[in-house]
Write a structure and sequence with these properties.
26% helix; alpha+beta; five-stranded antiparallel β-sheet; homotetramer; globular
Chain lengths: 350, 350, 350, 350
Amino acid sequence: MSGNTFGKVLRVTTWGESHGPALGAVIDGCPPRLPLSPADIDAALARRRPGTSIHTTARREPDRVEILSGVFEGRTTGTPISLIIYNRDVKSEAYEPLKEIFRPGHGDMTYQAKYGIRDYRGGGRASARETAARVAAGAVAQKILDTVGIQVLAFTLELGGVRAQNFVWEQLNDNPFFCPDPEAAAAMAARVQAVKQQGDSVGGIVEIRVQGCPAGLGEPVFDKLDAVLAQAVMSIGAVKGVEIGAGFAAATLTGSQHNDPLTPKGFASNNAGGILAGISNGAEIIVRAAVKPIPSIARPQQTVDVHGQPQTISIGGRHDISAIPRIVPVAAAMVKLTIADFLLRQKAVT
Amino acid sequence: MSGNTFGKVLRVTTWGESHGPALGAVIDGCPPRLPLSPADIDAALARRRPGTSIHTTARREPDRVEILSGVFEGRTTGTPISLIIYNRDVKSEAYEPLKEIFRPGHGDMTYQAKYGIRDYRGGGRASARETAARVAAGAVAQKILDTVGIQVLAFTLELGGVRAQNFVWEQLNDNPFFCPDPEAAAAMAARVQAVKQQGDSVGGIVEIRVQGCPAGLGEPVFDKLDAVLAQAVMSIGAVKGVEIGAGFAAATLTGSQHNDPLTPKGFASNNAGGILAGISNGAEIIVRAAVKPIPSIARPQQTVDVHGQPQTISIGGRHDISAIPRIVPVAAAMVKLTIADFLLRQKAVT
Amino acid sequence: MSGNTFGKVLRVTTWGESHGPALGAVIDGCPPRLPLSPADIDAALARRRPGTSIHTTARREPDRVEILSGVFEGRTTGTPISLIIYNRDVKSEAYEPLKEIFRPGHGDMTYQAKYGIRDYRGGGRASARETAARVAAGAVAQKILDTVGIQVLAFTLELGGVRAQNFVWEQLNDNPFFCPDPEAAAAMAARVQAVKQQGDSVGGIVEIRVQGCPAGLGEPVFDKLDAVLAQAVMSIGAVKGVEIGAGFAAATLTGSQHNDPLTPKGFASNNAGGILAGISNGAEIIVRAAVKPIPSIARPQQTVDVHGQPQTISIGGRHDISAIPRIVPVAAAMVKLTIADFLLRQKAVT
Amino acid sequence: MSGNTFGKVLRVTTWGESHGPALGAVIDGCPPRLPLSPADIDAALARRRPGTSIHTTARREPDRVEILSGVFEGRTTGTPISLIIYNRDVKSEAYEPLKEIFRPGHGDMTYQAKYGIRDYRGGGRASARETAARVAAGAVAQKILDTVGIQVLAFTLELGGVRAQNFVWEQLNDNPFFCPDPEAAAAMAARVQAVKQQGDSVGGIVEIRVQGCPAGLGEPVFDKLDAVLAQAVMSIGAVKGVEIGAGFAAATLTGSQHNDPLTPKGFASNNAGGILAGISNGAEIIVRAAVKPIPSIARPQQTVDVHGQPQTISIGGRHDISAIPRIVPVAAAMVKLTIADFLLRQKAVT
């Protein structure tokens, strides 16, 4: 049983390969009568587009969405919303040499093991390209969140070992990393340049915050809000860890340190990250994702081909040095889809 | 839409409150003709039972399961397997004072916000008691894993800041923490005693390893193996973070450091934790969970009552100092349920 | 992937075999704060119990339900409601001769083909006994319907060729057939006696009506209200046909005859049976189910054993002559579960 | 929670409105390595296209599918298969007068009640146009059925009261009704002409047969094969009744008449329609669907507008006289999707 659908009431199904004619999403369960236009979605897609400062040779993706169904005279109708984004600027021949080799850190070997066939062009379905559909769907989810005033904020907390310290929120969008600390952003840029020259890549940490979320969202015991957020964020290609609130740091705290005191004005601290017993508590929801370094690197690597023979591979071409800048809007989108789904799920029983 | 069912082909639905007459699980989708007896399940439940060394006043839970359906003459029939565990040794009157107060770090406030009603006795549905049903279901999942020789190993990696260093696997079950490092286990015991005297509690880190898992399990793009493992483990009450393989450490590595080279004999390292592009790669699967300290502590804490008035609370009674020892078998159970489900999902399409 | 769960927001999972220790249902997704007691459910179960007039040797099933979870101080809590009904008066040894033979018209052969194993005692999971759990769950669904004033009425329209003509609703419960036509009920009783003496059995038609259902329920395009009602009712053991409104008669009408004119006061007729384009239209919902004759008959029948050898079988013992009287409350329960689920589904998006 | 997805392992999500830019289907869960080309699907779509003999003014739908994903070098890859069919020859202005009026027998009133908004052009999502996506998906399902040699045959059994009697299977495709009785087909054509001149429409009965289906498919107790077939077929717009095997006729038979004797060579009769206890028994599966007359008729009808004011409506334009010819391939598609899904579901547990 495949797994290309996310959500229970707000259900998003994505489809498409990196070098196929198009990719897209079908969103079923969106409430009717919400305003929705292609421009709403294109704005979100633009944030996912590679910048120029750190991605000089990167693939151009001036993505534009078409809404094929579910919207009538500018409003959602309650029927499925089909979104399509055509793939352009596709150079499949560059991938011909990869037909018979498994790139380290990529899904080449596992797709072959699972399906016995794979579209090797640009990573096929396993490409980060797939996340464009998630971002498009996330823009629809935001329309649902708008009805109750929920905002989702995502940013780069750490990249290549450089961690943001002083948050200047107004400058969040002034650098290609969506990093709220301008000094850290400059250091990140330097780190990326250095690593690039070494033919290598870097990872980092993305943080996502949800503001204005009412208490009561989340469905014990398996669909706890934190549990599904973990699935949502871990389902993004390069993510290797997810934590909520204090997260892994909670492992070294005592109960008296970690518990958030309740006061008549709300919680006095937020180690819980806005979630207690799997249900939102009204405080800011805080999620962090650990992102591994991009596996495609210029440095030679040891690997095997489809026949099991040892090979050395050096991956050139237009690859990012870090997945972080693109993952920031993708992570925001996955959190939006999750929160919107739980908002609708909660309506069903109250 | 509620969330008390886990899995897609192997579907487990749990039910029950801490102080209700019983709790249980219904397992739908278990293949027929597998051997299954109550003793198989009771053995798993025994591992979850509180030990004596660190839980001197803890509730007695000599749990015994009854199999009410789905098994005939010692073998599964393919019909739903209903498991029931009666609650015994329940002292609900002790919880009467908690009727009108929200304990910090607990779900009291969020259950009230979500449902407008709550069974306050022993935490109701939010009690760790609920996990007994998961452990019972996990024992059934193990029967499925047995058919292909998959083993799941869970242990305490860290507790109260004490981390296991030297792994002596034969001694894993010789201490109440399921810690494979005997020296670390002794230090953990000392740490627990010290914290207990301070009326406080501690958290830690649990690690789960899956051995013998074939390559090819996991369902891109949303039900990636790591994504669903993250949900499975994060759905356990006290867990605040989940990581796979190198996990959060991957954020500071470069691609050449993090990528696992492929060789004709397999992967030369395992930073991926056995999963690439959301699909198992045949290597050992490695999951780690960050566990927060037990929120019920004797030290006085600031809180509010159901009327929003400030209160001070000091929680006595028979509470654990750390959730870790109980979470070890629970985490193993959730991983077993996840792997078994993906094993069956993969069968559907090959 | 098994199929023991019904519903999307109101999810009912049933379990249990005819001669196992018990059977039951877990209901997930019931809204909180609804009044619910065992007596509510026992009343529904009593309607399903065999009467005495036509079932002189029938198995005694003085069923009593226990609510094991999800209810606190007489109200639902929003957590799973676990219901259990113990099997009593079970004489499994009577089924020993059936261990190696396939009864015509029963699931013996198909369960063996599907699972490679079967609990042959009393039909195992395929027994009509399983429907007790449905009726119990239906009583919970009625609590949800009560919140908006929806009533479900089920009755015998036809039995053994005798069709009700003049409906005297007040006398619906005055005969063992739940037939609103007293004269027809008498004829049905005579027909049953005659058939019984011939060692044979009869089928019939059950009609279910839903009153007070608001317009707007049903989810195009696959979960249309009529489509899911068809699944719900066809999933009852002996049902071989389902129709809505004019049903099969619509095949011979013209458009001008079949269309229901709309007037400012509502629809002028109800050939649609209360459903248009898969969505309730506010008129009475009308469903009819064709029920086959009970396959267990005293007359000798040709069959084969598990080794494929020809055999003759004559089934004695305490069997009903018609499934109809028991199916009436079961059909009502399935319709209640369906309507309640769609009521909650509709809340999620409005 | 919306309902635009059908199937559990083979999951089909359809989208699109009659007068939107396109409609389509996403098929998730199709096994990898099956041959699939647009031509396979176009052939199925061609059968659904209106003929000329009875639909002289009907909308032209020379549908051609594009496969946007999930197929690589002519074979399925195991990833989602996205199919798109562009809407051409759309004349939306003809529907402008229907903006404020509810057509009798159509979903205009119920869509408005449900969503508070509707795309009134050509019936929007409620249009029979939607079934093109089902037929396309059914052609993919056939590829799965091909792997085990299952054939699905659908035909018109009755139209406007004319019933097929003598089946000449070779001539099934020689008339626009897909009627295997040439004489009946001629009478049906005459009946259609007569009704058309009266400005009216007719319904009928479609029969679907599944040949070569192995025993063991179907998932008790709610997803019985007959139950899900009933949902599948009843989810087609104009269908008002579904029956299996003897169907409604079973209501008047005795057990000794209805039971199918088992012999060493198989079943001696097939009143069960190939399904026992919800599981296929290896015999031919027989499903029948009652189809109501097309609600759009030229004769004046009484109705109301969106303001509840009485109106008279006479629907001109290019409408079919009977839905039957188009429903034959649609019903076949729904049955194919159902059987293919159960085939994969069965693989998961054996």
